[in-house]
Amino acid sequence: MSFLKKSESLEVISSVSFMAFLFLMTIFTGAGKVSNLFHLSISSMMMFWFIQRKNFSYPGSYPWKSIGVVTIFLIYYSVTNLWTSYPINIVSTLKHTVYLLFFVYMFDYCIKRYGSLKVYSFIFSGCFIVLILTFILVDKNTILTNRLENGFFGAPKNVIDLGGYFALGILSALIIARESGRHWIYLPASLLFIGLILTQSRGPLLSLLVSLFVLLAKYKHVHLRHVFYILISIAAISLFFYFTDYGSEFYERIISSYAQSFIRFGIWHHAISEAFVHPYFGWGFDKQLTFVNSIGQHVITTHSIYVSAFLKGGVVGVLFMFSLIMAGLYQAYKKYHQGMGLEASIYLFSLMFFVTQGMFVIGGPGETWVLFWLPLAIVFSSRKA
Predict the structure, then answer these.
(1) At a CB cut-off of 8 Å and minimum separation 6, what does 300 contact?
(2) Which of 129, 214, 279, 366 could serve as 30's disulfide partner, Cβ 3.0–4.6 Å?
(3) How many CB atoms lie within 10 A of CB 142?
(4) What is the per-residue pLDDT for 230?
């Protein structure tokens, strides 16, 4: 009996440490001490599985075929290390493969154990704390003239990723409102939207708006109380623009995006040209760009994980990436028609966000875990409405 209790304690330790990791990962991005919580979670769960190996059974409702697609994608890109300058890196990439698969699995485990409300409350709280700490620590003299960056040390270093965190917090807030009926959460969600605007990041903003538009298209009838809370949120955002005169600054940023978009097109053109040198299996996992663009910037990233998939893994890698995306879209489609459109919207947001951002998605705990793998874990979750 005591042996059984010890094994159950391992299960509790694993789930609690994972929830703590999920919360703190959004606040202290990439911090080693936070990652220790994840290591505690995976080691505890593996010991639990070993002890319970005779009684362990796989949950039948989990999308194991889709997980198989993800596994093949991860293993293939790990193998591409073999035709790089440092083939020994395959060990590290395979380790991250195990970590990512465990991350996706444990999210579903915690949803079942603690419920959607608690899990999404942790995600929302982490994103909102990042917003508040950024507002507190950022230079107040430039908050309305420069992009909202260089504030809180634990926040993502890239301001576009920071905008992605705020967008994820907004979508998590909407899920909390749906699950609990706590519509007051629209107000802190409005602050997150203001933070998103202050980052002056077009990609996260456009991705959020499109993902919400697709969701709204599903509903033909809207409750008056929802309209009321939405109007309050719009009023709060409008007051911010009115009293700060920030609207003209943001408008100029949007107008300038037309010219800046050509810079990114130039990066993609160069990356694709490089990829065609090794079109079938790519340059390998550690390939980065090294060139100076048209305005004199030294570029090392593709600014699109999809372009990077071609550069690193060739046509074969693109096919595996496409298979992973389609597996996620299939699960998102099921969520959409099971009354969990917001979960599907989070995944759609992620796919759009990475069209113009990032270098790749395989690595240690960091921004891609929050903005790519977490949305994938959300739609893979076997929880039904």
Answers:
(1) 288, 289, 290, 359
(2) 366
(3) 12
(4) 64
Q: pLDDT tens digits, residue range 70-126?
A: 999 999 999 999 999 999 999 999 999 999 999 999 999 999 999 999 999 999 999
Residue 59 one-letter amino acid: P
Give which of 203, 196, 174 is closest to 240, Cα–Cα.
Answer: 196
Buried b (16+ CB within 10 A) or exposed e, 218-236: eeeeeeeeeeebeeebeeb
In this structure, what token pair is assigned to residue 126?
Answer: 């982490």
Q: Which residues contact 354 (CB under 8 A, 6 or more apart)?
A: 304, 305, 306, 361, 371, 372
- At 255 the pLDDT is 60
* Neighbouring residues of 267: CB distance < 8 A, sequence distance ≥ 6: 289, 293, 299, 301, 302, 303
Domain boundaries, the chain: 1-57, 64-114+257-385, 126-245
Say which DSSP state 281 is in.
T
| pLDDT tens-digit readout, 353-369 | 999 998 899 999 999 99
User: Are 242 and 278 in contact, with CB atoms under 8 Å apart?
Assistant: no
